[in-house]
Amino acid sequence: MAKIVLDLHDIFNKGLIINTELNRVVAEAIQKKIALVEIIPGKGSGQLKKHVLKFLDQKEIKKLYHRIEKDDKNFGRIFIHFKF
After folding, report:
1. Which of 21, 33, 40, 68 could be bridged to 7 by S-S, CB 3.0 to 4.6 A?
2. What is the pTM of this model?
3. How far is residue 32's CA from residue 14's CA, in Å, rounded to a whole number?
4. Which residue intervals of the chain are DSSP H helices?
């Protein structure tokens, strides 16, 4: 299964760029009909993960994907599942 991976480690302190990248991977997954996106906010303090989850909870974004999954084995990883 193909998936897109977005590692946010390099841009963790650049809020606008983070949102731009999150929008980009969601749009790319939809365009290419890729059913899984893996986002790696890292473990850290948890603030970046909260930022990503808040972004994904926006009404206009939430309607684009099927579900999200927080990796129970790795706190620093989030999966976005799409249905096509």
Report:
1. 40
2. 0.89
3. 27
4. 15-32, 47-56, 59-62
